[in-house]
Design the sequence.
C-alpha cells in the first residue's frame, strides 16, 4: 500500500520539530516549579513569563491577558462559564452562541442554563454564517457573553468576527471567539478585532495536545473554574505546565510568521482537491462554499453514500479523514453543524471532512482525487444493488 | 483463503475476540467492528454512553491483534428493527427475542452492508453455531449452541458467514484467549441480559417507550382456565407463558401462566397440564434450506434451552407453518422462535404465533 495520507489536520497535527526542541530542556535540567523561590524556580518562572509574552505578542495582547489552559475546551469553558458566573449579579444572565460551535462551547452554554442562566442560539444562514437579524434580536441587555466561533471546524466557514464583536460590545455584551481553527489561518489580533476573549489550542498548530490559551482583555470580569493556588493571579490555579507553555509559544510564533504563506499553500491544495473531486463527482456538495472559508477544511457530501462506510473504506486505503463529531465510543454521529445550516439529513449523513496542513502535498491530493471518486462509485453501486 | 478480508462483529467479549484472533491466525485480513446499538447516555450524563467499556475492550483487542477497529453507529436501525418490535410484542402479550431480530436485521443485513462497503468478502461473529458448505448447523458445544437465534438470516448470507468459535467449547474458547494472550477479556463474564435491558427489567424499556400507564403495564385479572378471577396482576407485559413467579398462591398444585389475553389484560393461570400443546403455528417463516413441504418430519425447538421435539410439518405456506408434535410440548410461547432442525442442521424457523392445544384434523 502507498504511504498513508493524513487529511485530518483539523483534528490534530504532529508536533513540530522546533516545538519539540524548545520544550526539551523543561523535561530535563530546567524542570523547576515556577512558584519556587530558588534558582530552579526562577528559571522556570522566566521561561513561563516569556511564554506568556510570546503568546500575547502573537495575539496583539499583553502578557497578563493570556491564561494558559490545558486545552481549547478548558479555554472555552472558562470564557463562557467564567464570564457568565461573574456577570450574573449585574442581571446579565443569558449566554448567546451559535448552533455550529464546538461541543466545548455548546456544552458550556448548556451548563450556564443548568445554573439558572439562559442559553440562546443564533440562527444561521444556509451559507454557514450568522444571521444578522437573529444576532440583533438575541444579543440584548440580559446577555453576559456572546460566543461565536471564528472558523468552523467542520466546514471552515469564517465568521465576520470584527463586526460581530463590535456589535456585541456596543450592547455591553462581552464577546468571545473560539479561535482554535482560526489561529494561524486568519489574523487573530486583539488590537484590530475587538473580542474580549479568545480561545486557542496548541495541538492544531504543531504544539502538543494538552495546552491551550485563553486571551482575556484587561478588565474583563471572570471567575476561575478551579480553586487552589495563586498561579496566574488565581485565575488558573495549578502548577503551570512550563514545557507545554513554551511549546505553545514556539508554535504560535511560527504560525503567525508563516500565516500568509500557509494560507496560500493550503488554498491552492484545497482548490485543486475540490476541483478534482467535483470534476469526477459532479453532484458532490461542498458545504459552506458560498461563504468565506479558511483554506484548510473541505466538507464534502455525495448523495447516496454514508460517511461511516466511506471513512472505513478510506482508512483501509490509507486515507485518514473524519466526519461530523465523534461520540465517546468513537462512532460517527450526525453533524450538528450541517443540520444547523439547513443541510438535509441524508446529505449531512454522507459528509466527509478533509483537512489539510503540514503533511499535505500535491501528491496526496492527487491520490485522494483518484481514490475517493472510486469509493463513491462503489458505494453508489451497492446502494442501488 | 489467506488475505481475504473479513469484517468481524466484536462485542468486546471473549467469543468474538477469539473469533477475530483465530481469523488473524489463519491469515485473513481482519477488520474489527463494534456496533453501537443504543445509547442511554445522552440524556443521563452520569451514566456512560452505551457500553463504552465493551467498545474499549474490542478496540484494545484489535490493537493487540494489529487489525483496524471501527465503531459503527447502527442505533437508528436497531431502534426501529429490534427495540420497537420488542416493545410492541410485549404490548401484544407476547414474549419476543430481540437477539433473533438483531441477528437477522442488524448483524447479518445492516452490518453486512458495511462489509460490502469495505470489500470484505466475509462477515464473522462469535456465535456458537457452524456454517458448513452453506448449511447452518448447531454449535459443537451443546451447552453453548446459539443456532436457535440465527434462523432468520437471509439464506444467501450463509455463504459469506464465518463462525470461528462454533466448532469448540466455551472452555476451549477461553483457553485460546489465554494462549493468545488476550488476558483483557479471557475471563470476562458471560453476558446474560438483553443488551439494551441491562438490569433485566424489560418493563422499564416498555414504560419508556409507551408510558408507565400503557395497557400492558396496567393492572388486570388473573383468571383460571374456566374464567374464575383469582387475583390482580400489575401488567401482563411482566408475564410470560410458563412463568410461576408473581402468581397468586394457595393452590393444591403449582400454577403457571398458560395464556395472556392482551385485549382484556387477562393473564390466565393453570396447572402444569394446561401448559401442554399438541401443535404450533409460526409466522415470518424463513428457510435456510430449500423450503420443506407439508408432511416432512422435523425436529422442533420452541425455546433456546429446550430439547428439540419431534414433529411433522402439516402446513407449509410462504409465511406460515404449522407443526404437530409427536408428544405434547410444554409452554409454547407466542413471540419466541420456532426453529426446525434435522439433526444438527438448521432448516429454518419462524415466530411462534399460537399453540394448538387441540389438534386440527391432520392433513393426510
Sequence:
Amino acid at each position: 500500500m502507498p504511504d498513508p495520507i493524513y487529511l485530518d489536520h483539523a483534528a490534530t497535527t504532529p508536533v513540530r520539530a522546533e516545538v519539540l526542541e524548545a520544550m526539551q530542556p523543561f523535561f530535563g535540567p530546567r524542570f523547576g516549579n515556577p512558584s519556587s523561590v530558588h534558582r530552579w524556580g526562577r528559571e522556570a518562572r522566566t521561561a513561563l513569563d516569556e511564554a506568556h509574552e510570546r503568546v500575547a505578542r502573537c495575539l496583539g495582547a499583553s502578557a497578563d491577558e493570556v491564561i494558559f489552559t490545558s486545552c481549547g475546551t478548558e479555554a472555552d469553558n472558562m470564557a463562557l462559564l467564567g464570564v457568565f458566573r461573574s456577570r450574573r449579579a449585574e442581571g446579565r444572565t443569558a449566554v448567546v452562541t451559535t448552533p455550529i460551535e464546538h461541543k466545548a462551547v455548546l456544552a458550556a452554554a448548556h451548563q450556564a442554563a443548568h445554573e439558572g442562566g439562559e442559553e440562546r442560539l443564533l440562527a444561521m444562514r444556509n451559507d454557514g454564517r450568522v444571521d444578522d437579524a437573529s444576532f440583533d434580536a438575541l444579543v440584548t441587555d440580559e446577555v453576559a457573553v456572546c460566543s461565536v466561533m471564528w472558523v468552523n471546524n467542520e466546514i471552515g466557514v469564517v465568521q465576520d468576527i470584527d463586526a460581530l464583536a463590535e456589535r456585541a460590545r456596543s450592547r455591553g455584551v462581552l464577546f468571545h471567539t473560539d479561535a482554535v481553527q482560526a489561529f494561524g489561518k486568519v489574523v487573530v489580533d486583539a488590537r484590530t478585532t475587538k473580542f474580549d476573549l479568545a480561545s486557542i489550542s496548541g495541538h492544531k498548530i504543531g504544539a502538543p495536545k494538552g495546552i491551550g490559551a485563553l486571551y482575556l482583555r484587561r478588565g474583563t470580569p471572570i471567575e476561575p473554574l478551579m480553586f487552589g493556588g495563586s498561579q496566574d493571579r488565581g485565575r488558573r490555579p495549578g502548577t503551570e505546565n512550563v514545557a507545554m507553555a513554551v511549546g505553545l509559544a514556539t508554535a504560535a510564533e511560527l504560525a503567525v510568521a508563516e500565516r500568509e504563506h500557509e494560507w496560500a499553500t493550503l488554498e491552492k491544495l484545497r482548490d485543486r482537491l475540490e476541483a478534482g473531486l467535483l470534476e469526477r463527482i459532479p453532484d458532490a456538495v461542498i458545504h459552506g462554499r458560498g461563504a468565506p472559508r479558511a483554506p484548510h477544511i473541505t466538507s464534502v457530501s455525495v448523495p447516496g453514500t454514508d460517511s461511516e462506510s466511506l471513512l472505513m473504506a478510506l482508512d483501509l486505503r490509507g486515507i485518514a479523514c473524519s466526519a461530523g463529531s465523534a461520540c465517546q465510543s468513537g462512532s460517527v454521529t450526525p453533524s450538528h453543524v450541517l443540520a444547523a445550516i439547513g443541510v438535509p439529513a441524508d446529505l449531512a449523513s454522507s459528509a466527509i471532512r478533509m483537512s489539510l496542513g503540514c503533511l499535505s502535498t500535491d501528491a496526496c491530493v492527487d491520490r485522494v482525487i483518484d481514490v475517493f471518486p472510486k469509493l463513491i462509485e462503489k458505494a453508489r453501486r451497492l446502494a442501488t444493488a | 483463503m489467506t488475505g481475504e478480508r473479513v469484517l468481524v462483529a466484536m462485542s468486546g467479549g471473549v467469543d468474538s475476540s477469539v473469533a477475530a484472533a483465530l481469523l488473524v491466525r489463519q491469515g485473513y485480513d481482519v477488520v474489527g467492528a463494534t456496533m453501537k446499538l443504543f445509547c442511554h447516555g445522552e440524556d443521563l450524563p452520569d451514566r456512560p454512553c452505551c457500553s463504552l467499556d465493551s467498545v474499549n475492550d474490542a478496540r484494545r483487542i484489535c490493537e493487540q491483534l494489529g487489525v483496524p477497529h471501527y465503531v459503527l453507529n447502527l442505533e437508528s436501525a436497531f431502534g426501529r428493527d429490534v427495540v420497537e418490535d420488542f416493545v410492541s410484542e410485549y404490548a401484544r402479550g407476547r414474549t419476543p427475542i430481540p437477539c433473533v431480530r438483531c441477528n437477522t436485521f442488524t448483524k447479518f443485513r445492516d452490518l453486512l452492508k458495511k462489509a460490502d462497503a469495505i470489500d470484505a468478502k466475509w462477515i464473522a461473529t462469535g456465535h456458537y453455531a457452524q456454517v458448513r458448505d452453506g448449511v447452518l448447523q448447531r454449535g459443537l458445544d451443546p451447552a453453548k449452541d446459539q443456532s436457535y437465534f440465527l434462523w432468520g438470516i437471509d439464506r444467501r448470507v450463509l455463504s459469506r458467514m464465518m463462525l470461528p468459535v462454533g466448532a469448540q467449547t466455551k472452555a476451549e474458547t477461553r483457553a485460546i484467549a489465554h494462549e493468545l494472550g488476550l488476558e483483557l477479556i479471557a475471563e470476562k463474564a458471560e453476558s446474560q441480559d438483553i443488551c439494551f435491558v441491562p438490569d433485566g427489567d424489560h418493563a422499564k424499556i416498555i414504560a419508556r417507550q409507551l408510558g408507565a400507564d400503557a395497557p400492558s403495564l396496567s393492572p388486570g385479572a388473573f383468571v383460571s382456565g374456566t374464567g374464575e378471577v383469582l387475583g390482580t396482576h400489575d401488567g401482563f407485559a411482566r408475564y410470560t407463558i410458563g412463568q410461576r413467579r408473581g402468581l397468586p398462591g394457595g393452590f393444591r398444585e403449582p400454577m403457571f401462566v398458560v395464556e395472556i389475553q392482551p385485549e382484556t389484560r387477562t393473564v390466565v393461570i393453570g396447572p402444569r397440564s394446561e401448559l401442554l400443546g399438541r401443535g404450533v403455528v409460526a409466522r415470518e417463516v424463513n428457510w435456510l434450506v430449500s423450503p420443506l413441504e407439508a408432511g416432512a418430519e422435523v425436529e422442533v425447538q420452541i425455546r433456546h434451552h429446550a430439547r428439540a421435539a419431534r414433529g411433522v410439518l402439516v402446513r407449509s405456506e410462504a409465511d406460515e407453518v404449522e407443526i404437530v408434535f409427536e408428544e405434547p410440548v410444554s409452554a409454547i410461547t407466542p413471540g419466541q422462535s420456532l426453529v426446525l432442525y434435522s439433526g444438527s442442521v438448521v432448516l429454518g424457523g419462524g415466530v411462534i404465533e399460537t399453540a394448538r392445544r387441540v389438534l386440527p384434523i391432520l392433513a393426510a
